[in-house]
Design the sequence.
């Protein structure tokens, strides 16, 4: 498996045909796992080692959790605060690359 970082440009970033030929799996921090080198070349993706890619994903997950906790802390007690706290409590600690 190869790991890439690329900015998702929206529609057409990953075509059905590209995904069918070699599955392209997206992760936090614009990290993608695939064997589809032609897709990576087309979108200008930068190849990363698994360790580098996992570090990017880990950082993005932790930053997201911190932002959510800060949002929760800024809210008065109520339904939105409860809903967001449940979301945070049920979120995975880590996201592991294949």
Sequence:
């Amino acid at each position: 498996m190869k790991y890439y970082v690329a900015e998702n440009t929206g529609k057409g970033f990953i075509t059905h045909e590209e995904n069918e030929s070699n599955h392209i799996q997206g992760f936090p921090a614009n990290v993608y796992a695939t064997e589809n080198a032609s897709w990576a070349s087309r979108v200008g993706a930068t190849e990363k080692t698994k360790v580098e890619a996992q570090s990017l994903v880990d950082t993005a997950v932790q930053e997201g959790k911190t932002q959510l906790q800060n949002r929760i802390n800024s809210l008065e007690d109520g339904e939105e605060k409860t809903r967001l706290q449940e979301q945070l409590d049920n979120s995975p600690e880590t996201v592991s690359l294949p």
The two ends are 8 Å apart (CA to CA).
